Amino acid sequence: MPVNLSAPRSSDLHPVPGVRIGVAEAGIRKANRKDLTVVLIDEGASVAGVFTQNRFCAAPVQVCREHLAQGRGIRAMVINTGNANAGTGEDGLVRARATCIALARRLELAPEQILPFSTGVIMEPLPHERIEAGLPAALADAAADHWLRAAEGIMTTDTVPKAFSAQATIGGATVSITGISKGAGMIRPNMATMLGFMATDAQVAPAVMQQLAKELADGSFNRVTVDGDTSTNDSFVVIATNRARHAPITSLDSAEGQALKAAMLAIARQLAQAIVRDGEGATKFIAIQVEGGGTGEECRQVAYAIAHSPLVKTAFFASDPNLGRILAAVGYAGIADLDQTKIDLYLDDVRVAVQGGRDPAYREEDGQRVMKQSEITVRVALGRGTAADTVWTCDLSHDYVSINADYRS
Amino acid sequence: MPVNLSAPRSSDLHPVPGVRIGVAEAGIRKANRKDLTVVLIDEGASVAGVFTQNRFCAAPVQVCREHLAQGRGIRAMVINTGNANAGTGEDGLVRARATCIALARRLELAPEQILPFSTGVIMEPLPHERIEAGLPAALADAAADHWLRAAEGIMTTDTVPKAFSAQATIGGATVSITGISKGAGMIRPNMATMLGFMATDAQVAPAVMQQLAKELADGSFNRVTVDGDTSTNDSFVVIATNRARHAPITSLDSAEGQALKAAMLAIARQLAQAIVRDGEGATKFIAIQVEGGGTGEECRQVAYAIAHSPLVKTAFFASDPNLGRILAAVGYAGIADLDQTKIDLYLDDVRVAVQGGRDPAYREEDGQRVMKQSEITVRVALGRGTAADTVWTCDLSHDYVSINADYRS
Asked: Which end of chain A is more exposed for a tag (fewer CB within 10 A), N or C?
């Protein structure tokens, strides 16, 4: 059961002029399943992406990086579920490229104008011929209002399709922003693989697209964690179709740049948080705010130490206000000169620890009340400076173990 | 159920001349429980310790460091379960010191000659008056052959007492080496706290004791992990009573120094591995060997990434040869220039991946056979150099979640 997350309605998702989406059943791993999605992008769009830092990155991630670097203008994306094409060596690269070549041929483009994405079981050869055979049906399905179909088409064991959408006014023009994501919940491959795609018809100069993609990822997908396992396939792609009638954004520091980024970040956060809300076995959604740090980096170090601690995560699952586990995680986060006597800890608005010790005014029933909620904010004040950052995560439940211990039958 | 670990017999544990141990029921948290242990050390011993790196270290850890730094000659240790005296601020230091003062008074020693250790529930005031009231009974119980009682006396939710012993010939003299440990399995405090104590009657110059303690810890306790949570109270103390009739060891590089260290390391490893075998919910004991690294540090980085991955650990629990999870953990271990095409992976002697891809000769049934064992060796060859290191861990089971989600009632 996802935490406070319901399926989007197609009518709530704004089409993005210049983007069309088609979905098909290609039988990649199982029959009768929408497992192939094609995204068609009109000429003239700006496209950028950020990808997994995992050195064991999947073949499609390597091909995406190559094709984006070529700079020939990305015109389509091909996304399959059922097979991640990871841990597949040189042969995996050949197969990923084959899907690009096949789609490029049908669209009369160069293969370097296609970005491939795969998610699913790993260390098995990608059945690229099934993808190629499914392309005609996917292309025939292409339409501007198929975002919900795409959100469904990229699901693996996500329990809810994830799509968010908004409109904003940029330079006097109304622009649409729509995105989809998939996340943590892949029983078969037994690996959490995050994919996120966003599109807007706003005009963004190619020169600032990479910065935009990176800043959006840093404020959203790079701030969520389910189990700390960085997948081989994580990909986040941002498309600006440049169709809206406003002056092109050439700097994110301009008023228009800031407005667009803020609007897109709101959607990116919803997409990223939806992954946590639908995390494997999640029963709670937890924001970990760390403030008073010397740098943002050390705030994140502390936040991730808390977010990744199995002891903290099981305490959340149990609704147990086990403050010691949180303080212990702060202590081993790797800040060498941390002074424990300056640390305060809050569960929502309840101060539970002050100056490194239990708050004399703290009553366990207050902590208990907060821990029983489905959404909890943990706030740590480090007393070292003025930096702050937030990470979102979920608890560690029996279902997490069940889902991941389930043999790939 | 611990993994291949049975309770020691008292008759297998060699007394160490110069060390006596007494245990008592002090009612620190619960009645009718051996919760207070006193270790008495004859004058003239060399003592050294290594302690948690957690910045939120417990009060007794801080007092131990102070007292060892004073160098007045450690003559006794006082160890309680039921309360960790961690996250207790200045008041916790006062209470830890009070137990040292009380024991010192009874033994006509200086408080700085006492080392205090606490393990149990955290962020609650140490009931030091109960410890003080229990001292007479513990002292009356003191005897050289009470090592098993001590192993039992420091248990919290360990399911088996942990004690190992051996004799070695050093410089023509027979020396005894005996140690005890406790580990991961504390439902109440909900925090894994590791304590290890070793003693030998070998003669070791005080100048090399710290190096000996550190090297023993590095080869044993610092190479095991249950859940990656570094506790606030971890302590490991080594005592050499200097009673054996051989020339004092003034260098660990001498033949005698090497022989003693090897013999002590064997015991330290057994003590450390016993903690993993009795880890919370453990059903499998797993050695992670990483070889072919550029440095030992990067081998450990990779080994810990594998050992801490919840996805890998649940796969072990499920006996699922899910190779992708292991390779993914290698990939995100943080080695920036790792070349995935040089990596081989073995489960025991079965090569499952070669040059970063699935071994063509690998059959799933072979991997399955190894994964079903209760003891498994994962071997990763990085193909970057000649360094190697090993980390020991256990799997992540439903019982881990149950144990740690159990509310502190």
From this structure: C
Q: Which of A232, A397, A387 is nearest to A301 (CA)?
A: A387
Q: Is the ipTM value over 0.95, yes or no?
A: no
The residue-averaged pLDDT of B97-116 equals 98
Q: What is the mean pLDDT of chain A?
A: 90
The pairing of beta strand B235-240 with beta strand B195-200:
parallel
Which of B284, B290, B285 has its CA nearest to residue B270? B285
Contacts of A323 in chain B (CB under 8 A): 87, 123
pLDDT in tens, B197-251: 999 999 999 999 999 999 999 888 888 777 666 667 788 899 999 999 999 999 9
- Tokens at A338, concatenated: 């941390």
Place of tokens 């049975």: B6
Q: What is the pLDDT of residues A264-310, one digit of tens each?
A: 999 999 998 888 888 878 899 999 999 999 999 999 999 999 998 88
Domain with CATH 3.60.70.12 in chain A: 10-277
Q: Between 3.60.70.12, 3.40.190.10, 3.40.50.720, 3.20.20.70, what CATH number should domain A10-277 receive?
A: 3.60.70.12
CATH 3.10.20.340 domain locations along chain A: 285-405
β pairing state of A375-381 and A285-293: parallel
B309 is in an annotated binding site: no
Cα separation values, A196 from A1, A49, A51, A236, B108, Å: 21, 10, 10, 5, 69
Architecture of domain A285-405: Roll (3.10)
Chain A residue whose CA is closest to B86: A324
B87–A357: do the CB atoms touch at under 8 Å? yes
Q: What residue type is assigned to position A6 of the chain?
A: S
Residue of B nearest to A88 (CA): B357
Tell me if A280 is assigned to a ligand binding site.
yes
Taking the C-alpha atoms of residue A44 and residue A18, their distance in angstroms, rounded to an integer, is 9
| CA B389 to each of CA B265, B378, B394: distance values in angstroms, whole numbers, following the listed order | 15, 12, 17
**Burial, A106: exposed, middle or buried (Cβ in 10 Å; 0-12, 13-18, 19+)?**
middle
B22-55 burial, b at 16+ Cβ within 10 Å, e below that, comes to: bbbbbbbbeeebbbbbbbbbeeebbbbbbbbebb
Residues of B involved in catalysis: 193
